[in-house]
Design brief:
alpha+beta, Rossmann fold, 3 domains, eight-stranded antiparallel β-sheet, eight-stranded mixed β-sheet, Esterase
Length: about 575
C-alpha cells in the first residue's frame, strides 16, 4: 500500500484506514527457517528476519524500508540456535508494514530469510549483552559479513491457508575488503584503549584521510585538520580523480527529479578533485571517521553510557594519533568540524563538549539539538511520541514530510519497523541510536527506553537524563557563562525550513537562545527557503547539488576562521605551498 498524506486530516484518515484492515484467520501459513549443518558456527544468537515482496528486481532484504510500498518483514530473536535447528515465524509475531503475516494479502511473493548475528560482550561494568558486532558494512544487516541468508524463492502465500513453508539459511555473507591507500586517500586504523576497556574486546576507530597535493614531497609541512562527521564511510567519499564513466548506467533519484543522479555525483566528485589540486586551494587534511559500533553505523562522537566514551576516544586518543601520523598541526586552533544530519549533530556536540579543542563547527541540518522538538515531539511535556492527544480524540504524529508537507509514514511506523528488526534497541535504526547514545543503561545492560516502542508512552525520567546530558540547546543555555567565551565565533548552523524530518524546529529554538547569549556567540544561523534535508547553507544551489559540496562549501569558511582566530606565532605558512 502506498499513501500520500496531506495535513492532519489525512494523517488521521490513514490511522483509521490501517486500523480497519481486517485480520485474516489465525491459521495463516507459517515459515520454518533452518540453520543448516553447514553453518560456520555451531550455534548463533541474533535476529531472524523473514521478508516477503511482490517485486523481484532485487533481493527481498534490500527492499525493507519504512515506506508502505516496501517489503513485508517479520522478526524473532534467537539465543543459541544450533546447527540443524529451526525457528518458526508465524502470524503471532510483529511485522511491518502489516502488523503480522495475517495481514499479508494472498498472492505470489519473493521470500527470503536473514539471520543477523549477535556477539556476546562482557562490558567493563560487569554487564553482559548480545549485540551485532560492526564487521565492515556500517551496521547494515543486509550486508554485514557473517550474517546468513536464504536464497530468494518465489512462492504463493495465502493467509487463510494453514501449513508450513521451509527456508534454509544456506548462504554466508562474505567479508568486505578494506579500502586501499592511494596518492590522495590514506587509511589510519587506531586501537582505542578506552573503548577496548569499555567493550571488553579490541575496539578500533578508522580514519579515511584525504591528504593534500604533494603531501609526500613536503615532509616539512604541517597541516590544519577538518573532521567531516557523518554516517559510516567505507572510504573517503565525494573525491574522484577521473571524469565520470563514459558508459555509466544511469541511476535515477526520485527525490531530486534527476534521471541520472549517479553521473551528477561522479562529476561533483571529480570537480572537487580538480579544486583540491588547484594552486589556490588550501593544503590541509580532511578525515572521515569510521566509528561504527554494535548499535549503529557511528557513535555520535560523544561519551555514552551504552556505546562507550567515544567523545574522549576520538578527541583525546584518535585525533592526536592521526595528527602525528599525517603531520597535523596538532592544536585546537587548527582543528575544525563539519557535517550534515547525524554529522551536523556530531559537529555541534563535539564543539560544545570540547570547546577549546576545536576552532569552529559548520553544522548542517543537525539531528534534533533541542529535545522540545525531537522531530515533532516535546519529550518533556508530551506524554506520547506517536499521538497528539486531547480530551475527545488523538491525531498521529508524522515521521517524515516533503517540501509540500506531504507525509509518507508516521512516527509509529518507523519505530515499529525498528522493533521488528531488533528488540532492546538493536535495530541499527535512527530512533534506536538516539536512544542508545542518550539514555542511561538499564539493569539488563541495554539502553533504557525513552518511550515504549509499541505504545509511544514517554518515560519522563529518561527524558530528564537526555535533557541534562545531550540536549544541546539546553546545555548551551545552562553552561554559557562557562563555555560561551570559548565558543565565540565557532557555531554556524544551516538548515532548510522544510527539512524532511522537521529538524529546523529545534534550530529555531537554539537560534533564539544564541541571539540573546552573553557573551555574543558571533556565529551564524541560516535557513534555506523550502529546502529539504540536508541543506548545507548554499542558497545558490538546489539540495541535489549542495549536499555533494560539504567540503568545498566549508573549507573557505575554515580559512576565514583561521585568519580571524589563529593565535600569535601560529604556523600559517608551512602548509601554504
Amino acid at each position: 500500500m502506498t499513501a500520500t498524506l496531506r495535513g492532519l486530516t489525512s494523517l488521521g484518515a490513514m490511522a483509521a484506514m490501517l486500523a480497519a484492515i481486517p485480520a485474516a484467520p489465525a491459521a495463516a501459513e507459517n515459515f520454518r527457517i533452518t540453520l543448516p549443518a553447514s553453518a560456520p558456527d555451531a550455534q548463533y544468537d541474533g535476529r531472524v528476519l523473514l521478508i516477503l515482496t511482490p517485486k523481484g528486481e532485487t533481493e527481498p532484504r534490500f527492499q525493507v524500508a519504512a515506506d508502505f510500498d516496501a517489503a513485508q518483514v517479520v522478526g524473532i530473536t534467537v539465543d543459541g540456535l544450533r546447527r540443524g535447528q529451526a525457528v518458526t515465524i508465524d502470524s503471532t509475531m510483529l511485522g511491518f508494514p502489516a502488523e503480522s503475516l495475517s495481514g499479508v494479502p494472498k498472492g505470489e511473493y519473493f521470500v527470503q530469510a536473514v539471520l543477523h548475528k549477535y556477539d556476546t560482550y562482557n562490558l567493563a561494568n560487569g554487564k553482559t549483552v548480545k549485540l551485532p558486532a560492526a564487521r565492515g558494512a556500517g551496521q547494515n544487516w543486509r550486508n554485514e559479513p557473517g550474517n546468513l541468508v536464504s536464497k530468494p524463492v518465489k512462492l504463493a502465500y495465502d493467509p487463510a491457508k494453514s501449513g508450513t513453508i521451509s527456508l534454509n539459511l544456506d548462504t554466508v555473507l562474505p567479508p568486505i575488503e578494506p579500502a586501499k591507500d592511494s596518492e590522495f586517500i590514506r587509511h589510519f586504523k587506531f586501537k582505542s584503549p578506552s573503548l577496548t576497556k569499555f567493550w571488553g574486546r579490541d575496539t578500533f576507530i578508522t580514519g579515511h584521510v584525504l591528504v593534500p597535493k604533494d603531501f609526500d614531497k613536503h615532509p616539512e609541512a604541517k597541516y590544519p585538520l577538518a573532521i567531516f562527521h557523518g554516517h559510516f564511510p567505507d572510504d573517503f567519499g565525494g573525491f574522484r580523480t577521473t571524469p565520470p564513466e563514459a558508459d555509466l548506467k544511469c541511476v535515477p533519484a526520485a527525490r531530486f527529479g534527476e534521471p541520472c543522479y549517479n553521473r551528477i555525483e561522479q562529476q561533483e566528485a571529480h570537480d572537487f578533485y580538480k579544486k583540491w589540486i588547484s594552486d589556490d586551494f588550501p593544503r590541509m587534511l580532511i578525515v572521515e571517521i569510521d566509528h561504527s559500533n554494535p548499535y549503529y553505523d557511528d557513535s555520535y562522537a560523544v561519551n555514552s553510557a551504552n556505546i562507550g566514551p567515544y567523545g574522549d576516544a576520538i578527541t583525546h586518543e584518535f585525533i592526536p594519533a592521526l595528527e602525528k601520523q599525517f603531520r597535523g598541526l596538532g592544536q585546537g586552533w587548527a582543528r575544525y568540524l563539519y557535517g550534515g544530519s547525524t554529522g551536523g549533530w556530531e559537529a555541534a556536540a563535539v564543539q560544545i563538549f570540547y570547546p577549546k579543542e576545536y576552532n569552529g563547527a559548520f553544522i548542517a541540518c543537525p539531528d534534533p539539538i533541542d529535545f522540545r522538538h525531537y522531530m515533532v515531539t516535546n519529550i518533556y511535556e508530551d506524554k506520547n511520541a506517536y499521538w497528539r492527544e486531547g480530551p475527545f480524540g488523538r491525531v498521529p504524529k508524522p515521521g517524515k514530510r516533503n517540501y509540500l508537507g506531504h507525509v509518507p509514514y508516521l512516527a509509529e511506523h518507523e519505530n515499529r519497523l525498528e522493533l521488528v528488526l531488533g528488540e532492546k534497541t538493536r535495530s541499527g535504526g535512527q530512533w534506536d541510536i538516539w536512544e542508545a547514545v542518550y539514555s542511561p543503561m538499564g539493569e539488563d545492560g541495554y539502553p533504557k527506553r525513552i518511550f515504549d516502542k509499541r505504545t509511544g508512552v514517554i518515560d519522563p525520567a529518561v527524558a530528564a537524563h537526555w535533557r541534562e546530558n545531550y540536549d544541546l540547546r539546553h546545555i548551551l543555555e545552562r553552561d554559557w557563562k562557562k563555555i560561551g567565551p570559548d565558543l565565540q565565533g565557532k557555531l554556524h548552523i544551516y538548515v532548510g525550513d522544510m527539512d524532511n524530518y522537521y529538524l529546523n524546529n529545534a534550530v529555531y529554538m537554539t537560534e533564539a537562545f544564541l541571539e540573546k547569549a552573553d557573551p555574543p556567540y558571533q556565529g551564524e544561523v541560516k535557513y534555506g527557503d523550502r529546502a529539504e534535508h540536508c541543506w548545507n547553507g548554499d542558497p545558490t544551489q538546489p539540495n541535489a547539488i549542495s549536499r555533494l559540496r560539504y567540503n568545498s562549501m566549508y573549507i573557505p569558511k575554515i580559512l576565514d576562521r583561521i585568519k580571524k582566530a589563529a593565535p600569535p606565532g601560529a604556523d600559517l605558512t608551512s602548509w601554504k605551498y
